[in-house]
Amino acid sequence: MDVVNEKQICAAKYSYYAMVLGIVSLAGMCCFPVMPIIGGMGIIFALISRGGAKAFSKNAKNGLILSIIGTCISVVLTVGIVGYSTYDAVQRLKNDPGFIDEVVEQYENMYDSMGQEMPEQLYEMFDELREMSDELNGK
Q1: Are residues 76 and 106 both part of a single domain?
Q2: I need a surface site. Which of 24, 30, 82, 105 has the fewest CB within 10 A?
Q3: How far is CA 59 from the centre of its chain?
């Protein structure tokens, strides 16, 4: 087998991988924190498959497009959910005096289910959060 055929076979494999990873990154958005990695790999494989050629193969181009779309949507979902969760937690700290007690209880239940005691550092952290919550509420 000559070198040209090996390069063509290798490029075809990488363009196929790019297409598969592009589809997975788009279809697997329910696992959004992991999908930017999959989409990024699809983009890399598409770029590698091009080799020295001036244009992408059909599979590589489609894989590149799908990977970019999947990555962008996953990043937007991740940022949106983290942003909303942070906003919601701050609002609950401001408006719900029992919120921290609920969280402490959930952590204690989680540690109890594992047969362990909650570390003292977590209790200290929750005490600091209570103080911050009191400051936010003007107490």
Answers
A1: no
A2: 30
A3: 26
- DSSP H stretches of helix in the chain: 3-27, 35-50, 58-95, 99-113, 120-136
- Residue 2 DSSP one-character state: -
Tens of pLDDT, residue by residue, the chain (139 residues): 555 677 778 888 888 889 998 888 888 766 767 788 888 999 999 998 887 778 888 888 999 999 999 888 888 888 898 999 999 988 888 888 788 888 899 999 999 999 999 899 999 999 988 888 777 777 6
- Domain of residue 72 covers 1-80
DSSP 55: S
- 107 burial (CB, 10 Å; 0-12 / 13-18 / 19+) is middle
What amino acid is encoded at 23 in this protein? I
100, 133 in Cβ contact below 8 A? Answer: yes
pTM strictly above 0.70: no
Q: Are residues 38 and 72 in the same domain?
A: yes
If asked whether residues 74 and 9 sit together in one domain, one would say: yes
Supply the pLDDT for residue 10: 80
Positive or negative, the CA dihedral 113, 116, 122, 124 is: positive
